[in-house]
Here is the input.
Amino acid sequence: YSKSHGKNQLTLFSFKILDEFTSRINLENDLKKAVLNDELRLYYQPQVFSADGTVRGAEALIRWQHPNGKLIPPNVFIPLAEDMGIIHEIGNWVISEACSQMHYWHTQYHFPLTISINISPIQLLSENFIDIAFNLISESQIDIRSVEFEITENVFIYSLERTINSLKKLSDRGIKLSLDDFGMEYSSLNYLGTLDINVLKIDKAFVSSIMVDPRRTKILDAIIKLSHQLNLEVVAEGVETQRQLDYLRSKKCDILQGYYYDKPLPSSEFETLYLKNKDTTF
Ligand code: C2E
Ligand code: MG
Ligand code: MG
Ligand code: MG
Here is the structure.
């Protein structure tokens, strides 16, 4: 099932990019080399506490710096990597790189930011993932309490039982867990009662409904309230405007992320803007 699912995720935009390669096979070969040749990059997007404007942390978002000069977005190559079976290698690299970078920032700036790392369902449910992940985190020397894994709802279509087990093992050993893209695809309120999660990330589709679509905005309000009743922190993603920010703040949405603050940034720019002046509020 995972094969066809991955392919379906390729959007029209992806096919446009694919067109520029002579075939999918070429892209696959290039992707294999990308891993060996160090062409993968992590960008960092700030997350800001809505209450006081201080930085909570960063989400690590992968990009592929293709030798042809193009920066290829994850929606294009992550599904391909899942199909090809190299998502494990890529995913492990992401954990290691993101945790090492954040540990470096912690020691350099004495500022305990959280690092949020996207985990593919295929990675999460693979045989040795839990042990491998903990080894990588411990090698990076980061305090595990600063590590958050983001899991998307579509992990549930593979196996609810295995997902529950994996999340419990991660959570028992101190990793924060966040449910990404909430409300879009396979959300069931039942999961919220079963899973060991700490954070709920509301999909940007709900944020873009603010002042535009009153019914969806009511759903957004309800998700925030429900999360708080379940003691979950709420992140809004895709915050682009001052009006959206004001609205989310008035509804006590805990954490905000989006182009309003910044796009995902290369590590050096993130460092300059969010760590060198760490007392700045946003
Ligand atoms: P996501 O985890 O839901 O990440 C949020 C996406 O929204 C990112 O796209 C981010 O750049 C974009 N975004 C942030 N703020 C705004 C905004 O204000 N407006 C709009 N329109 N977009 C905004 P990106 O970086 O292209 O990543 C897309 C998806 O690829 C991610 O969605 C995640 O599912 C996946 N992904 C990214 N990095 C990794 C990774 O290291 N591993 C895995 N397995 N998946 C990854
Ligand atoms: Mg995410
Ligand atoms: Mg998301
Ligand atoms: Mg997404």
Notes: The beta strands are 40-49, 55-65, 71-72, 114-119, 147-152, 176-182, 199-202, 233-237, 255-257, 265-266.
